[in-house]
Amino acid sequence: MNLDVQSLRTFSRLAHSGAERAAGSLTQLTGVETCVNVTKIEVSTRGDVEREFVEQDLVSVHIGFNGGIDGRTVLAFDRDRAVELVDILVPGAAEQPDGEMATSGLKELGNIMLGGFIDGWADFLETSIDITTPTFVDVESRGALDDITGDSGFEMDTGEDHVLAFRNQLETADEKVNFYIYMLPTHDSIDTISTVAGSEGKTVPVESFTSFSEMITDGAEQASEDLTAMTGSETTVEVSRLSFVPIEAVPMELTEETRLGVVLEFEGLPSGYIAILFDRESADNLAESLMPGMEADAAMRQSAIQEIGNITTSGFLDGWANALETTIEISPPTYVEDLGSAIIDPLATELAQSQEHAFLIDSTIVTDNDEFTCDIYALPNEAQLREALNRLAAEA
Question: Which of 199, 297, 330, 372 is the most exposed place for a label (fewest CB within 10 A)?
Fold first, then answer.
């Protein structure tokens, strides 16, 4: 199964259009204004997807689809807040958010929203797509993707099961309720959509994307080991994934809280930008771990973060260079302290001069005792990343 950037662009527009249909269905049903916040295509492991469900305490409604294309859709949400919307449809549901009335209402909510989502795809493909009866899934009692068949994923040599997921974030106007729509089409269905989307002749096997995803994870694990060696605090990689997003949506991936860290440019195959970011508490704890017993002022903290950022970046990118048998040069680190979105925005703006979409790589490294969290965001040049993916395909 091959993919090209043109297909990914079409997938992104389709997913966004379908999500707008779902948002419109919810608005019409409840009177609560709902909009689409971010749409992206992710290559990640099932474990990472399920971990996100657990950490955010999400419950979900699953609906299968078949006909013109086949697969599964998942509507995930915070149960208590979503039940507040269901209460508009089923008065009394909010009094017992774990009760049968609330569950039934959530299934109906999922049926209407996901039905609208799939209708958007059917219209584009000029085909009919049938949907199954909705199933309510509580992550506490079973895995978030337990009923997703193997046809919606692909296994690597490592045995880790990956998924190509279309992930949409919707939110109500008062920002009280966030919904996430995941669409996981089968292999054959991705081929069908790609054929309709048209091809630029620059296709790469989807397995190359998963190979690169594995490479990202390896790089994050090396960065984690380097952080552990520097700070003495045991760290682990919490999540590491590759996403395809509209370039203007990249800054929206970060929260509006202040972040401290470094930004670097890397050149080679591929080239691009990387940001190593910490929240303020993490930055203070890092400075303390590097300079125990010393009163770290702003200059000392900045110096510590620059040093950590430089070493972490080297560990992260060295794995790429080894896997691609190339050389990647890294610029000196530039210290940054600003809102997360404000830090990433100029990097996205620079890439926007030559591309409309971006491959966003994000990894999170955490300590077992919550001493600090390190977020790594990489934005490679789209054309050069495609060349790197083709190189991985040739080696395979």
Answer: 297
CA distances, 371 to each of 234, 260, 299 (Å): 10, 15, 21
Is the torsion defined by CA of 191, 194, 198, 202 positive or negative? negative
Residue in the structure block whose two tokens are 């670097």? 264
- Residue 241 has a CB neighbour count (10 Å cut-off) of 24
Identify the pLDDT of residue 171.
Answer: 82
Query: Within 13 Å, how many C-alpha atoms sit on residue 272's CB side?
Result: 28
Two structure tokens written together for 340? 């997360």
Q: What is the pLDDT of residues 268-292, one digit of tens each?
A: 888 999 999 999 888 888 877 777 7
Strand partners, 58: 78
- Contact between 320 and 312 (Cβ < 8 Å): no
Residue 31's alpha-carbon distances to 19, 26, 34, 82, in angstroms, are 17, 8, 9, 14
Secondary structure letter of residue 32 according to DSSP: -
Residue 337 forms beta bridges with which residues? 260
Distance separating alpha carbons of residues 13 and 16, to the nearest angstrom: 5
